[in-house]
Design brief:
globular; 17% strand; three-stranded antiparallel sheet
Length: 127
């Protein structure tokens, strides 16, 4: 496990993009001792297709970010863009996903959440 939270978030984002989804990967970011692993389980459910879990995770870890847009293009890619409230939307994070129709929207949302967390996490911060 990395002792750098930003590196752990980036590694998790890359695993989600690659479809390499395991609960253990989420535990490297959301440490079970802190909340009983609840956020790791919620993130895992979002990665596996639960839109409700994606919203729950978003509300828990990014309360000052709102969903700006949810779109799907002609190639069936889902785009979920979230925006930071205090910047009037100037700070945005976009996730996209194109595989597995059932999980695509929730996984795109999860990727936008991870990208936003990465943007807010200073290098060298420990989990």
């Amino acid at each position: 496990m990395s002792d750098n939270l930003r590196e752990a978030l980036e590694a998790l984002r890359d695993k989600v993009r690659a479809g390499d989804i395991t609960k253990a990967a989420f535990w490297k970011v959301w440490v079970p001792e802190e909340d009983g692993g609840e956020l790791a389980y919620v993130a895992d459910r979002a990665a596996r297709g639960s839109i409700d879990a994606a919203k729950e995770l978003h509300d828990a870890v990014l309360p000052s970010w709102l969903v700006h847009s949810i779109d799907q293009d002609s190639r069936k890619y889902w785009y979920v863009t979230i925006a930071h409230i205090s910047t009037g939307g100037a700070s945005r994070s976009k996730g996209l996903w194109s595989h597995e129709a059932d999980a695509s929207l929730s996984r795109a949302w999860l990727l936008s959440i991870l990208s936003a967390l990465i943007s807010e996490t200073p290098k060298g911060e420990t989990p």
